[in-house]
Write a structure and sequence with these properties.
Organism (chains A, B): Zea mays
Keywords (chains A, B): Acetylation, Chloroplast, Hydrolase, Phosphoprotein, Photorespiration, Plastid, Transit peptide
Pfam families (chains A, B): Hydrolase_6 (PF13344), Hydrolase_like (PF13242)
Catalytic activity (chains A, B): 2-phosphoglycolate + H2O = glycolate + phosphate
Oligomer: homodimer
GO cellular component, one term (chains A, B): chloroplast
Helix content of chain A: 25-40%
CATH superfamily of chain A: HAD superfamily/HAD-like
Distance between the termini of chain A: 59 Å
Order of helices and strands of chain A: HHEHEEEHEHEHEHEEHEEEHEHEHEHEH
Largest interface: A-B, 61 and 63 residues
Structural class of chain A: alpha/beta
């Protein structure tokens, strides 16, 4: 009853080598349940699983077991020429909060002029692609909705990829972005902000009814998280046969505001894990679902992709898990000191200060 | 910064063999961080770690690696004579919800008349020992407050055991029982029900202040759980040097009402784990902190204790982790079928229908 019951082989995956626990059904190869590496890791301490994952990537590339230190990007042209698609994380790469990072519009223009495909990926599930599109527009960037892959979209895309029945419903712990994407994909849903004010007032014999047609619970960041939602989601996952537990991401922190780091979607997912004892299917980074999805959609192989991000344990690991080239930018949360610390074993292929370095590192000579 | 920083060797423990993760400092032997076995396990599927823990108990006893099937209790006298203290779980053993289980008062009287020490242990942290005392009284049972060990008390007792400084504060995610026990133990606290109605309303630049004197965050079952509490607790654990993360328990389900199973303290603990990426120190079952505490307090060795419970993965594991004899009663959540299922590898020493079987299985011949 408490087993993982994925209804298709199209499972979100990472290259995390952790074996499934005894309460999980093995996932069909080559896909595996994801999120382990993130859960075990810290924000500063390097996740053990990630280290192993990195080793497996290196081993696959025929390199030594120890990851070589990342090289400072010297020849942007060579990197750009070697790939077809750039996937950009947004916060810390394209913008910081509501402020565009220097030189971004020109850099994107340069890459487009060289015929590169651009994709923007974010674990933030509070907005839909359309809402993200408006954010890009506000910042003066011309980005097509189809180029944006938020984890809200990923949740809906995942359900589509497994032919989730249209007569089933999705219970949502999360904000508006998830609801909008589910609606666009034609799925029935309940929960979300509507349940934000509901309370459990203790009365003898109190019993919570739940909808037996719920076939998936999608959990993302939710600042209106409460016990009602925990219990409702738990009942669906535990009592509805085959009900999926899908996490948009397991990020420890998110940037609700720029003033500090806020507890992220990992908190909401952790709560449901604590009450269901079931591992979620993660569709956001570092699971490679989004990468596999877009590789399939655009017909490209992941070795022709360069993942550009500011976080080692989500962005760079995501790229490495997917078999992409990886570029760390120091314009976000990771400092050069953290990258080069002996405690860090997630090494991107290259690092540079910010993406506008593409403009000066030979690449401007189009 | 995100390391486990226990300030004393008196760490809550289980015999879980899981090594600490890379982000945790090793705990001083023989104590280990606890909760792993519970977290990995399911309610029905047997936790892998538990299985190993059981094996280690058996190995220590010189038995074969496979746990022998539990024996039906035939000779209550022999069991009673072989131990000095009985630890009873409450729900499913003494009562069910608000109803006393048949024959309990007579059974407790019998044991007292034989000079046995009786202790009542519960993972429920919503009540203090005093409040539990009133519950026993209401049910017509004469039990001393000192005989009651709820996880709310365990949290306060743990802080006392490590000489938690009186000028530091405790942030509480949980209900009134924890506050009352902290108050009785003379600790300063904040949070609890007071924060139940607080919301995070998004404004640009929003910043949550937190008290830098908080040296421990205690997390228990909390039906008024919300994002404010998650963020406050996370800030304390992540940003206050040495701040402890203490869980009263990690139970997947609790019995808020008898009408159904409700998401338990494991949900609140899981949320904080998801946002801090730090493992909690667990003071409730199956961690043996309470057992070690009372063995020390009463000067008894745990081999002279019999743990009586209705749950395999908390009560029986708790007893086995502590080196006690174990008796499963079938008057609660575990059926004979579950006990004897090939999937179950947590085998108590004995099982019986209910504790009043002590009255009929020879034991009545005092």
């Amino acid at each position: 009853m408490l087993q993982v019951r994925a209804s298709s082989a199209f499972l979100p995956s990472t290259s995390s080598p952790s074996p499934p626990s005894s309460s999980q059904a093995p996932a069909p190869a080559p896909f595996r349940l994801s999120g382990k590496s993130q859960r075990r890791g810290g924000l500063i301490a390097v996740p053990q699983a990630s280290r192993v994952a990195r080793r497996s990537v290196m081993a696959a590339a025929g390199a030594a077991a120890a990851a070589p230190a990342a090289a400072k990007l010297e020849d942007a042209d060579a990197l750009i020429d070697s790939v077809e698609t750039f996937i950009f994380d947004c916060d810390g790469v394209i913008w910081k909060g509501d402020k565009l990072i220097d030189g971004v519009p020109e850099t994107l223009d340069l890459l487009r002029s060289k015929g590169k495909r651009l994709v923007f990926v974010t674990n933030n599930s509070t907005k839909s692609r359309k809402q993200y599109g408006r954010k890009f527009e506000t910042l003066g960037l011309s980005v097509d909705e189809e180029e944006i892959f938020a984890s809200s979209f990923a949740a809906a895309a995942y359900l589509q990829s497994i032919d989730f029945p249209k007569d089933k419903k999705v219970y949502v712990i999360g904000e508006e972005g998830i609801l909008k994407e589910l609606e666009l994909a034609g799925f029935q849903y309940l929960g979300g902000p509507t349940d934000g004010d509901k309370k459990i007032e203790l009365k003898p014999g109190l019993y919570m009814e739940h909808d037996e047609d719920v076939g998936a619970v999608v959990v993302g960041f939710d600042r209106y998280f409460n016990y009602y939602k925990v219990q409702y989601g738990t009942l669906c996952i535990r009592e509805n046969p085959g009900c999926l537990f899908i996490a948009t991401n397991r990020d420890a922190v998110t940037h609700l505001t720029d003033a500090q780091e806020w507890a992220g979607g990992g908190a909401m997912v952790g709560a449901l894990l604590g009450s269901t004892k079931q591992e979620p299917l993660v569709v956001g980074k570092p699971s490679t679902f989004m990468m596999d999805y877009l590789a399939k959609k655009f017909g490209i192989t992941t070795s022709q992709i360069c993942m550009v991000g500011d976080r080692l344990d989500t962005d760079i690991l995501f790229g490495q898990n997917g078999g992409c080239k990886t570029l760390l930018v120091l314009s976000g949360v990771t400092s050069l000191q953290t990258l080069q610390s002996p405690d860090n074993s997630i090494q991107p292929d290259f690092y540079t200060n910010q993406i506008s370095d593409f403009l000066t590192l030979k690449a401007a000579t189009v």
